[in-house]
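Hello Y.,

Per our agreement to keep a running log of every chain we model this quarter, I'm adding this entry. I've kept the format consistent with earlier entries: sequence first, then predicted structure.
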Amino acid sequence: MATESSRTPHGIALVTGATSGIGAEFARQLAKQSYDLVLVARDRPRLETVAAQLREHTHVAVEVIAADLTDAAQRDVVERRLKSEADPITFLVNNAGYGLPQEFSLNSADDEARMLEILATVPLRLSHAVLGGMLSRGTGTVLTVASLAGEAPLGTYAAAKAWAMNFSRWANAHYRSRGVTFTALAPGFVRTEFHSRLGVARASMAPKWMWLDANFVVRSALRSAAHGRAVSIPSVRYRLLWMFMKLAQPLIAVFVARTSRRTATVADKRHDS
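Predicted structure for the entry above:
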């Protein structure tokens, strides 16, 4: 990692879930903004590949930490790095996360608890770990990848993402006057590996016009963070959808409930036959 005398003007950004999708795009764009990087993910070979590419094309210093953030001992390594004053982290991107392909009643409670941990508990712990140093220096940015789904009653993934939205709104209002800003990125559908890992085809999830490129989503998020905004919703189409969702939440809840009842009825009939 860079020394105090050679560190880039922006400092050091730590990105979780940095080997693919939105996380990898954050790493690329932050490197272009002259941030040194600490990349965190479970897969060390993929981490090393991404790090080597970034070093070659951007000439920033890149450190890698292979860690499963739902494992307390491995997460502790990342938390200690966030608390380091020798090479302080000035920008934290909480991006690591995943979804479950089945509905709540079909998943095990342990699987649901692990998803909740990676989407809510882990960002809480990492944000807490980095915050003390940022406050003492009077500057810093914490950006957490949430989802527009977090604004609607759409299952446990959405419920977990709602934590990031509400936490970022509160923390930004509370700490911004002390130089530390918090932003929740709330995209809609983004072209990444996320849905293929769920085993779901994009075409079955949403029409083409609803899909956004990760490059655009990350650029929008970094611009929002630079302006100290608590929530970043990329694209006009999704900002309009967000306004509709705020107004129509009761209707969405009714629609989800009716759809769930119909699905359950069909499943029961199949079971009886």
